[in-house]
């Protein structure tokens, strides 16, 4: 009886084509990697018990090369991209799911934010952010592509789907908590890195009484992130501030103001 095929994929490598097959026979499962090109075919057989070690080695290689494993040609079988999900690339190794959620919460209701991790628990430099609507994804892409975040110029695009694997999915950092609007707070973005709490408080007080101002920071060195959370004494003032302060100038920067989402 022929060996049973469990998974198959192929991708180009220069002038050659690489085929990856997972099969099973009466002895057990195994991985077959086959190279075709220039009328020559070479194959490598890897026992099922060693596939995990191979995967770990490849994850380490991807990270060492600084590559985005979510990109590239015909890898494995793909699932269709979710219209409510955006792909965020070129992330700092310090970025986490929580800080990613914090950033994108300023552009819409974030359902889920995750940074993709290797089997060794290291960031792969990219992540996915799911919004409540496709319109919010479009807005986030327009506003955040090329944005300086954690010292890196991030690349944001619509999610085109991810490669599915026969093995268990990679570890992720995530925070799946449902988010709701905090009625007394606003999220302020595009602040000058030199902005102070006193300056921002004075600016926002034109709409109503400000209870507190928190300038947000990034990374281990607590660098300014260019964003802040402002809390008003009354919810009516916070609601009015979203429209009244949007696009206003502070320290030579046009502010971006959104409702603040919290647990």
Automatic annotation (TrEMBL):
One of its GO terms (molecular function) is RNA polymerase II transcription regulatory region sequence-specific DNA binding. CDD domains: RRM_SF. Pfam families: RRM_1. InterPro entries: Euk_RNA-bind_prot, Nucleotide-bd_a/b_plait_sf, PUR-bd_fam, RBD_domain_sf, RRM_dom. SMART domains: PUR (SM00712), RRM (SM00360). Keywords: DNA-binding, RNA-binding. This is RRM domain-containing protein. Residues 84-161, 184-262 form the RRM domain. Belongs to the PUR DNA-binding protein family.
